[in-house]
Amino acid sequence: MSRPKFHLTRLGLASGIALLAAFVPVAAFADDTTATSAAGVAADTVWVIVAACFVMFMQAGFAMLEVGFSRMKNVGTVVAKVITNLSVSSIAYWGVGFGLAFGAGGAFALIGGSGFFPTFSPGSTMDLPAIAASTVPAAGKWFFEFVFCAVSLAIVWGTMLERTKFIVYILFGVPFAAFIYPLISHQLFGGGYLMATLGSQDFAGSTVVHLTGATAGLAGLLLLGARIGKYEKGRANAIPGHNMPLAQLGVLILWFGWFGFNPGSTLNATNLHFADVVVVTNLAAAGGAVAALVTVYLITKTMDVGMIGNGAIAALVAITAPSGYVEPWAGVVIGLVAGVIVVVGVLALDRVLDDPVGALPAHGLAGIWGTLSCGLFTTPALAKFNGVGQGGLFYTGSFHQLGAQAIAVGASFVTVFVLSYGLFWIIKKTVGLRVSAREEMEGLDISEHGMWGYPESFMPVPGGVYRQPDTPTVNPHPTPEHAPAMQKEVSPV
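^ that's the sequence the OP posted. Answer follows.
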C-alpha cells in the first residue's frame, strides 16, 4: 500500500518540477521584444499570404461565373482567357506595375518611381511609403497587391464575352497591369494625391479595383459592339447563359474570396481589425442578395437566379471601399442599396449595351456607390485608426468626406476611360477587336482554340452517342442578314 503512495508522490513532484521548468522560458523571454516582434511579423505575413491566396482563387470564381453566363460554344475560351490574363499580368505587374503603384520617388503625388523588377530575399524590404507600417516582407506585399490587379483585369472582360479576339486580352492586359491599374492604385492605395492630400478613402478597392475594371470594360464594349442577334427590330433579345449552377458557383467562390479581399487589406493580423471587416463584408453581401431578390421579383414577378447572384456580387463590390471604415449596420444598408442598384442597372443598361454578365452595374455602378458611401457612413474613430480622411456625413454633418469620395470617383473614371478607350482604339485599328461573323456564330472555342469546351454537343466523339448524319452540328439556324459572308461557308457536318 505504501509503494503506490510513494510512486504518486514522486510522480507529482516530477510533474511540478517539469511544469516549473516549462514556464521558465516564458518568464525569461516575456520581455524579449525581438521574439515578440518576430512572432507578430510571422502572424502578419501568414495572414496576408493566405488572404492573397483567397483573392487569387477569385479567378476561379470569375471563370465559373463567365462560363455559366456564356453559351456552350464559348466556354473554353473563357478559361483560356482567365489563365492567360493571370500570367501576363503577373509579369507586367512585377516588372513595372508594382513600382508605379507603391514605389517611393518620382513624382510621388502622381505616380510611384522605384521598385521596378524587384528581387526578393527572406525578410527583404522595399521603400513603399504608403504601406510601410505593415511589417510584412516586401514579397508578401507584392503578391497581395498583384492579385488585386489581376481581379481588376478579370472584370474588364465580362462586358466583352463571346466576340472578342483572343489576342486582345494580351495586348490590353499587359499595359493595363503595367500602367493603367497602377496609376489608380497609387492614388488611393499607394499614397498619391487623392489618398494622402485629399483624404479619399478606398479601403480595399471599390474604385481602385472594381470601377477601374468596369470602366475599361465600358471603353472596350463601346468600340466592340453587341453580339450578333442581341438587338433586332428595336428591342433587346435575351441571350441566356448555358449553366446557371456554374454561374452561381462562381458567385459563391467570389464571395469566399472576398474574405481575403477586404479583411486582408488590413495588411495586419495582430491588430485584429480584420475580424471586424469579415463581419461587415458578409452582412453586406447578404443584404445585397436579399435586396436583389425582392427587387427583381417586384419588377418581373420572377426570382431570377442570375440577379440574386449579381446582388451579392454588387454588395461585395460596394462594401469593398468602406469595409474597414463602417459599422455592421452600415454594411447592411450599403449592401441593400447595392442589391437594388444592380437589378435596376442591369435591366436599364441591357436595352442599349450588351454586357453578358452585368459587369457594368455590378462592378461599375456598385463601385461608385460603395466609394461614395464612405462619405456617408465612415465612423470618425475608424478614419483615425486607418489614418485616411475623416468621418462621414452621418456622423459629422460635414460634406467634406463625401466630396473627397466624389472627386476620387470622377478622376478615376475619366482617367481610366480615356486611357482604355485610346488603347482599345489602337488595337481595333491594327489587329482588330472582334472575330468575324462566321467565327462568332460557330463559337470562339472552335474558331480560336480548335476544340469546343463541350465537344460532345457539337461533334461525334468516339465512345459516345453519335449524331445522325443529317443533323447539323454547327450553325444549324439561318444566317443573319447582316452576316452575308457566312451564307455559303457553313454547312451541316
